[in-house]
Design brief:
CATH topology of the domain at 1-80: Histone, subunit A
Helix content: 55-70%
Pfam families: Bromo_TP, TAF8_C
GO molecular function, one term: protein heterodimerization activity
Distance between the termini: 154 Å
CATH architecture of the domain at 1-80: Orthogonal Bundle
Low-confidence stretches: 253-259
Structural class: mainly alpha
Order of helices and strands: HHHHHHHH
Shape: elongated
Radius of gyration: 58 Å
Biased composition (Basic and acidic residues): 99-114
Family: Belongs to the TAF8 family.
Oligomer: single chain
Domain Bromodomain associated: 8-84
Amino acid sequence: MATDNDDQDFAFHVNSHAVSLLAKECGFDSIQRSALHTLTETLEDYLENLLAKTHLYAELGNRTRPNYHDVIRSLEESGIQLSEFGNYLNQHREDRVHIPLAKEKPSTQTEEKYNFLSSDDEEEDNTEESTTSLPEYAPSHMPKFPSRHSFRQTPVYIHRPDDPQRVRELNSQQSRVVEENLKRLMSAENQLLRRHDTMEADMFDLSVPIVNYESAIQRKKRVKRAHTGDIRSITTKNDHSPKPNNANNNTTPSEISTR
C-alpha cells in the first residue's frame, strides 16, 4: 500500500527528471546535484501554485472539480498563453520519443473464501446460491453474500409435531436422554473423586508419621513403674530369707570364763 512519503518521492523523482531534460535542451551537458535539487523544488512550488489557482477558479464557478476553462484562466494569470504550447510542440514534434505507459500487473493475491455455517436446509441453500448472483449495483470485486440462514428469521422449533401423543413421546425421550447424561456426568465426577482420594492416601503414606508425645510419656512412665516394682519385690524377698543363729555367739567374756 502506497504512503504519502512514497508519493512525494515519486513526484520529486519525476520533477527532477523533467528539470534535467530542460537543462539538456538548453545546452547543458551536466548539472550539479545541489542545482538540480533547487530547480526541482522550484518546479514543485510553481506547479502547486498553478493547481491551487485552478482549484480556486473551480470554486468560484460552484464546482468541486476543475475543468478545461479553469486551467486556461490559471495559465493566463501566470502569464502563459496556449499558443506558446503549440509553438513548443511544433518545434519538438520530430524528435519526440514515445514512452509506453506502464501496464498494470495482474494481482497475485487470492481472495479469501470464508466457509459460512450451513443451515438445516442445505439443499435449498445450495440451489439458491447456484441460481442467484450479485445484484447489478454490487461491484464485481465485492465478495458474495453470506448464507441466507445468517440473516433469515426461522422458528425456534422446526417441524414440531402437533399430535399430543407424539409430543409426549418426544418429551419422554428427551427426559431419558437428559437422565442418561446426568448419570454419565455423576459417574465421571465419582471417578474423579476416587482418584483424588487415592492420591491423597498415597501422599499421606509417604508423609512423616504423626508422633503423640503424651502417649510416649505415659509409656515411659509405665515402663519406669514396672522397673521400680521389680526392684522392690527383689528387696522384699531378700528380707524374708532365713538368718543364721548367732545366740551362742552372743555370750559375754565373763560367761566364757565362768564356764
